Amino acid sequence: MRTYHHFINGGEVEPAGKQWLDSVDPYLGQPWARIARGTAADVDLAVTAAARAMREGPWAKMTATERGKLMLRLADVVTKNADRLAEIEVHDNGKLYAEMRGQLGYHPEWWRYFGGLADKVEGAVMPIDKPDMMAFTRHEPVGVVAALTAWNSPLLFIAWKCAAAIAAGCSVVVKPSEFASVSTLEFAALTREAGFPDGVFNVVTGLGAEAGSALVDHPEVAKITFTGSDVTGARIYAQAAKTMKRVTLELGGKSPNIVFDDCDLDAAAAGVISGIFAATGQTCIAGSRLLVQNSIREEFTNRVVKLGASARKGNTMLPDTNIGPVTTPPQYKKILDYIDVARAEGARCVLGGGPATQPDLPGGQFVEPTIFVDVKPEMRIA
Hints:
Elements: E1 2-3, E2 6-8, E3 11-13, E4 20-25, E5 30-36, H1 40-55, H2 57-61, H3 64-80, H4 82-93, H5 97-117, E6 124-126, E7 135-137, E8 144-148, H6 154-167, E9 172-175, H7 182-193, E10 201-203, H8 208-217, E11 221-228, H9 230-241, E12 246-251, E13 256-259, H10 265-277, E14 289-292, H11 297-309, H12 329-344, E15 348-351, E16 371-373
Parallel strand pairs: 1-5, 8-9, 8-11, 9-10, 11-12, 13-14
Antiparallel strand pairs: 2-3, 4-5, 6-7, 15-16
Helix pairs in contact: 1-8, 3-5, 4-5, 4-7, 5-6, 10-11
């Protein structure tokens, strides 16, 4: 079982507190790696390195065109390592290899897009009413960017959050979810292989209340980007406001599917199933509510239930597996609690409704695909 350190200023750094956290493979239900438990001291070291990189050294002197070329090089390095990174993500978060490999196949496109955009960000010259004077604008890097990522698609979130920041000339400090940090650390090593200067891309692992909170509070962090729950997002927003940091939030939703009677029912049913049970429902845009026109309600419900019942649960590395485990024990418990809440409030379960009990599911964090009907808008599950 490998032990991982923080990635700070271009290299591995032991945690100041000399403490570690287990990373558990959700499918096997067993630890498969150890990550550093970061503290405020580790965060300060990373942010200081990131700020220094923007003030001095190769990154500070690099032209926008040179930054873009580095990003294109990183895209090629990620492409070369996509199979390995996807497998690491599966061990980290328990999602299907097919999904993670698909994401890693597309991940480099963010670096290519923003790498190409890096030297095309222009200012403007505005006419003014004062003779012999000129007014103009130019865009400058905002500063050190703190990126707090979720456990369901760690490397995709890094591409979304960090590619634009780095293209603009910022440096970043990433705090991944404590449940899925290993792929982020492996990616950090690839930035070094691609030739990124020290301090441009840093990773501090650990708990949100410790490392994450210290990162949000750090005086040299200029912007925060976070993906996760609305409760945590609201807390970060309020915390960042005390020091007037810029904040971008991508939070979970309760997305509806709407099905009318003039649609292709088979295609719509397949879309509904894919939209909620793909990734075991663990996406920010999971279609967790289904609104169906009354004239087709019974027929469409039967189709969706039949499709849902055919989903195969099992080894996340196998191509014919449709549903993997729930990533974290707290989320597993939360899902089962909501199933109990739904029944208590009068919703009728027509599929699933509890833990999966197949003998070949070793980790114990599988939930049957579950569908409730007769759900009223005031019910908590809605």
